[in-house]
Structure formats: C-alpha cells, structure tokens
Amino acid sequence: MALKTPEQLLAYKPLKRVLAAKAAGAQAVSPNTSILEALRLMASKEIGCLVVLDGTNLVGIVSERDYARKVVLQGKASSETPVQDIMTRDVVSVGLAHTIPECMALMSQHGVRHLPVIDSGAVIGVLSVRDVLRETVEHHEQVIRNLDLEKLTLLNQRGSHY
C-alpha cells in the first residue's frame, strides 16, 4: 500500500462533488416577483434563500432574513412589494475552483450565509453555511481516518523489515 501525500490526505472534496449531493440547480425568482410569492417558493422547497435572476444574470439574492428585517420590521406589504426592493444586490459568489475553506472564509468575511456557485456565467447551485459546515465536519472525520490508516501502514511496513 503506497503512502499518500499530505495533499491527498488533506484535500477537500471539489465543489462540483459537494453540489452533486444537493438538489440540482438553484431556486430563483425574477426581480419583479412579489415577496409573498418568493416566501411561498422558499417554504415549498424548505430553503432559506433564493437567487434573483434577470434572465440568466444574477442580480441579487433574497433570504428569510431579508424578509424579516426589510419587510416585517418596516411594515411593508409582502404581496405588493417586489423582491428587488429588499434583495441583496452585491452578491458574493464563488466558482467551481473555490475550495470549502475559501467558501468558509468568504462567508465569514462578508457575513453571508449563502454563496451562489457560478459556472460559465450561470448559477448552478447555492452553498449554505450548513453545507460548508457539514462538509468541513465530514472532511475532518475523513482526515482522521486517513491518518489512522497511514499510521497503521507505516507500522506494518516497519514491522516487516525486522
């Protein structure tokens, strides 16, 4: 059994594999969609945010938190207010080349809980802080298992030389 390099032992799953474990694509609405419609979609899909697309262009992201802070607390009507009035416009996004640690750092740095994943100019999924946390925990568990196997391999190799 060949020993693994540190890079092999410590590598995170590529984002493409992380996204493959989730429902395909990203749930989206247009900027003119009413907040009430957006909330109904979030509830039916059991998700906490939607990407806002103008055609295929990412123009914003809207979350349950946006609703609570920008509609409920300001006394706006959910059925009459369009998503574009409350969405976050400066969206932090990532590409498939980003790593889980980079995603975690971006979420922390920008104080966001969701990262749209862009490939070839299109939104192909959304990573939540829960996805990143789950992946980090699974990764650390795998690293521990790999290190234990490597330790056993080294011990077995030493033992066969005596």
Computed structural class: alpha/beta
Range of strand content: 15-25%
Global morphology: elongated
Number of helices: 6
CATH architecture of the largest domain: Roll
Output the CATH homologous superfamily of the largest domain.
Answer: CBS-domain
How many strand units?
6
Distance between the amino and carboxyl termini: 18 Å
Largest sheet, in brief, is:
3 strands, mixed
User: Order of strands in the sheet with the most strands?
Assistant: 1-2-3
| Portion in helices | 40-55%
Q: Which CATH first-tier class of the largest domain would you pick?
A: Alpha Beta
Task: Provide the CATH topology of the largest domain.
Answer: CBS-domain
Uncertain segments are none
SSE order, one letter for each helix or strand: HHEHEEHEHEEH
The structural domain count equals 2
Mean pLDDT: 88
